[in-house]
UniProtKB/TrEMBL annotation:
The active site is at C73, C73 (proton donor), C222 (proton acceptor). GO terms for cellular component: cytosol. The gene is dapF. Its main location: cytoplasm. Its EC number is 5.1.1.7. This is Diaminopimelate epimerase. It comes from Fumia xinanensis. Pathway: Amino-acid biosynthesis; L-lysine biosynthesis via DAP pathway; DL-2,6-diaminopimelate from LL-2,6-diaminopimelate: step 1/1. Keywords: Amino-acid biosynthesis, Cytoplasm, Isomerase, Lysine biosynthesis. It catalyses: (2S,6S)-2,6-diaminopimelate = meso-2,6-diaminopimelate. One of its GO terms (biological process) is lysine biosynthetic process via diaminopimelate. Belongs to the diaminopimelate epimerase family.
Amino acid sequence: MKRSFVKMQGCGNDYIYFDCLEEELPQPEKWSRKLSDRHFGIGGDGIVLICPSETADAKMRMFNADGSEGKMCGNAIRCVGKYLYESGAVPKKDMWIETLSGIKRLILTTSGSQVLSVTVDMGSPILGASEIPTLFNLDTVLDHPLKVNGQEYRVTCVSMGNPHCVVFLNEVESLPIVTIGPQFENHSMFPERINTEFIHVIRRNELRMRVWERGSGETWACGTGACAAVVAAVLNGYCDEGADVTVHLNGGDLIIRDVGETVWMTGAAVKVFEGTVEL
Ligand SMILES: N[C@@H](CCC[C@H](N)C(=O)O)C(=O)O
């Protein structure tokens, strides 16, 4: 069976998008593993299904490159908004998308029929250690020591609908992320594995971030991760609540504002190419 797809990216976090508004895509876990392969597939950090919703304008399902389903994806949800608006399926600049971590509001900035950027209400951060989930016997995991492969790091853990471990370091460019990323991801304190953000505070309200994503490895950006990093930075005194914080990712910048009861994320959404694939 031939299926059309659209390849889109947000700050270089690239997914293969399938329009499932009228036709389902069976076995998404299997196709995410196969199609995400950068040598033998289309290449991407995973796949995203754009599905009908009974409670919102549409529903997003996202699968990591290893086939596991993520509950939320900040970069993908902006691309879903772009696709729905530009295809005419949802001709609204203020739309609602259902995800496994709740319904999110998107506000689109457009120029004519093109979407330039999307602002998303990412919801309240969850700080409860067991809710994230982590196995720390604490209420919150705030600047707490964690031994990873014999080395001690100080970590702050936040859920943005999916679990994140934020580590502040003096620099991140020389970080051997391919080695230490999986050690964090599969650490025994994280029963559902974890996404890890390595952060260098450049100055107040400006962060450099590299990320190791659960299920996809090092990606060029992570929207939920950038939100978790800013929440952690506010809690640790590096950024101001209510301020626009610039997060520099490998593939571009996101602007994140933590206003306490919710976190706003603004960034670009870009179409790379369209195609068809035999499934
Ligand atoms: N790239 C994403 C997050 C994708 C899901 C994550 N790997 C997980 O399994 O929780 C983003 O932009 O937020």
